[in-house]
Amino acid sequence: MNTFWRAKKGQAAMEFLMTYGWAILVVLVVIGALSYFGVLSPSTLLPEKCTFPVSVSCSDHQVTASTVVFVLQNGAGRDMRINRISASSEALGGAGAANLGCACNTPALGYPVTLRNGASATFTLDTAGCVGYCTFRDTGRDKNRYNVTAVYEWLDATGIDHELPGEVLARRP
């Protein structure tokens, strides 16, 4: 009789573990299916964004197959002159920068640009104006990060360059 009760307890324990085992297996299959179809992909969960420090806001942006375009609005309380803008990313490649990306400086494309307080301007970085023959390339990711740097000076205190770092996170073209 003693072995009979041990067998019943053992059978109950096995049934308990099997029930939870099947439930865990079903949960793992569902998570696997969701990640396979891209529902749980971080690139689809992260929003596209364009961020700059508080003094200058990025109100809009767009990345195409050959350009990075963004609109900056001056909210610093002073007028500024943007002398050049550069961008670097793994999605930008050149002959000398195989996997590191490269910087696109555009001083020859109509710069400097005067940005009055409260005003906004559209800036375009494209492959034609990039120093070092930068080209856009496929990184295999849905979204790429572009580190943008605007070099500016205040109109009431010229001669001193300041850097304004920003970031654009956008879908690849």
Structure write-up:
The chain has 173 residues and is of the alpha+beta class. The chain contains 2 helices and 10 strands; from the N terminus they run ααββββββββββ.
Instruction: Give the fraction of residues assigned to helices.
Output: 10-25%
Biggest sheet character: 5 strands, antiparallel
Radius of gyration: 27 Å
Mean pLDDT: 79
Strand content: 35-45%
Quick overview:
This protein is an alpha+beta fold and 173 residues long. It contains two helices and ten strands, in the order ααββββββββββ.
Keywords:
173 residues; 5-stranded antiparallel beta sheet; 10 strands; 3-stranded antiparallel beta sheet
Please write out the topology.
Blueprint: H1 2-36, H2 42-45, E1 49-51, E2 56-63, E3 67-74, E4 80-88, E5 92-93, E6 113-115, E7 120-126, E8 135-136, E9 143-154, E10 157-171
Antiparallel strand pairs: 1-10, 2-3, 3-7, 4-6, 4-9, 5-8, 9-10
